[in-house]
Design a protein that fits this description.
- It is a single chain.
- By secondary structure, the protein is α+β, with helices and mostly antiparallel strands.
- It is built from 14 helices and 21 strands.
- The protein has three domains: 221 residues, HUPs (Rossmann fold, 3-Layer(aba) Sandwich); 80 residues, Uridine Diphospho-n-acetylenolpyruvylglucosamine Reductase, domain 3, CATH 3.30.465; 96 residues, no CATH class.
- It is 40% helix and 20% strand.
- Strands 3-2-1-4-6-5 form a six-stranded mixed β-sheet, sandwiched between helices.
- A hairpin with a 6-residue loop joins strand 19 and strand 20.
- Helix 1 packs across helix 2, helix 5 crosses helix 8 and helix 5 crosses helix 9.
- The radius of gyration is 27 Å and the shape is globular.
Length: 431
């Protein structure tokens, strides 16, 4: 753990790790931690010229929210740093609790402002890390949860970093006092009904009376858990490559050959690669039981934001929209189309075009597959679409979402929302 005298060097190190010329954004709440981070960053960017901006998220959850904004504007103005204010609405009906819903809204705001290639710095410190570890442990989290907050990660082209994660709250308070820094206190920080506040005000001080430096040691444990999580991610990536490298389609027999922990790890890793929500422990356990018991039979396990199915010896990981067509999807058909991208349908807009090989203009109709369609293929003549889909190993649920493109009375192409399946008639080409 570093003391307050080393804080500026921590900021300099973080700045050195940011590509030259790229803008650095500071998430500025107005509290001690972020106010000090902006102050130190402004000093570093004067010594090592770099564009610096501040971003304040106005949650509107309490009367003091306007005071936070005013303080942030004064501080940014005094330091000569441009400030952007993002106003958000916190969805308290989402079932995440106040803390979780506010965090979700805050990170959504963070994602909107910095451009790809830029960096966003957050002011969490070692005491925050200890609290996050304890919260994860009390939820029964695995290694990834116990790793708490990473010092840095990339997301949507933006580098998110926590330069002060190695520093204690005491070190930050000492540096703020030395600088004569002013900040605002969030009144909700005193509300011990909130889990994090209860840990901060009651549990961690009690632990420190018995085990001095408990916060620092917990933060160290989180760092070690982060290393372990990274190694597990590498192992899962190796298993995925060995099983064919397709996270959306895992061979069931090869998956069964892995130990149960590696199966669970690989499925979670595959979901993360596909940007699907990872299955809760009970849903994942149910999926593994069905894989063992049913062989290649009907297997379907769903959880919020994703589902898993088995067909012809492969485990398919899907978003809910990939698994068949809902009644809502079936409205407003057929769709008129001139063949130019994008194709706009009730299922969304697809960046796909279709043209005749002779270049003649076309007037097309697009509609869901109804059965009985036939397609004239090069060198194969007119073929029944159902048989073609069986030959291509198109899973049954994807067949239900295929769209057939008609020109006059003839089917000339078959397209899938995933873009994985495309069939084009003789004389036609996908553009």
């Amino acid at each position: 753990m570093r003391d307050s005298g080393a804080l500026q060097s921590m900021i300099d190190d973080a700045l050195a790790g940011t590509p030259p010329g790229r803008c650095v954004w500071i998430a500025l709440s107005g509290g001690l931690d972020s106010s000090l981070l902006l102050t130190l960053a402004a000093d570093a960017c004067r010594r090592h010229p770099r564009p610096l901006r501040a971003l304040h998220v106005h949650h509107g959850l309490q009367a003091a929210a306007d005071d936070f904004e005013r303080h942030c504007r004064r501080l940014a103005s005094r330091l000569g740093v441009p400030l952007w204010v993002e106003r958000v609405e916190v969805d308290l009906a989402a079932g995440q609790g106040l803390e979780g819903a506010a965090r979700e809204a805050r990170y959504a705001a963070f994602a909107r402002r910095p451009a790809p290639g830029e960096a966003l710095w957050l002011a969490q410190h070692a005491d925050d890390q200890a609290e996050t570890l304890l919260l994860a442990a009390l939820r029964g989290s695995g290694v990834r949860g116990l790793a708490a907050m990473p010092a840095g990660r990339d997301g949507q082209g933006v580098r998110l970093a926590r330069p002060l994660l190695d520093a204690s709250r005491a070190a930050l308070e000492a540096e703020a006092a030395r600088c004569g820094l002013a900040w605002v206190e969030d009144p909700s920080n005193a509300d011990e009904r909130l889990d994090r506040n209860f840990l901060r005000r009651r549990v961690l001080p009690l632990l420190e009376t018995r085990w001095p430096a408990a916060g620092r040691r917990l933060a160290r444990s989180a760092a070690l858990a982060g290393e372990a999580d990274g190694l597990l991610d590498e192992l899962a990536a190796l298993d995925l490559d060995r099983l064919g490298g397709e996270p959306a389609r895992l061979p069931v027999d090869a998956l069964r050959a892995l130990s149960a922990p590696r199966r669970r790890l690989l499925i979670r890793h595959a979901c993360q690669r596909l940007t699907l929500s990872t299955p809760p422990a009970r849903r994942l356990a149910a999926l593994l039981v069905q894989l063992e018991a049913r062989g290649d039979g009907e297997v379907r396990v769903a959880w919020p934001g994703a589902e898993a199915r088995v067909w012809r010896g492969r485990l398919y990981l899907l978003s809910p929209g990939e698994a068949g067509m809902t009644d809502e999807d079936r409205g407003e058909w057929p769709v008129a189309w001139d063949g130019r991208a994008p194709l706009v349908t009730p299922l969304g807009a697809w960046r796909v075009g279709l043209r005749r090989d002779d270049g003649a203009p076309v007037r097309l109709r697009v509609m869901p597959r109804r059965g009985g369609e036939r397609l004239r293929l090069v060198g194969r003549g007119r073929r029944d679409l159902k048989r073609l889909l069986q030959e291509l190993d198109v899973p049954p649920w994807e067949r239900g979402r295929l769209l057939v493109v008609h020109h006059d009375q003839a089917a000339v192409a078959v397209l899938s929302p995933s873009g994985r399946w495309r069939l084009v008639a003789e004389g036609w080409s996908v553009a």
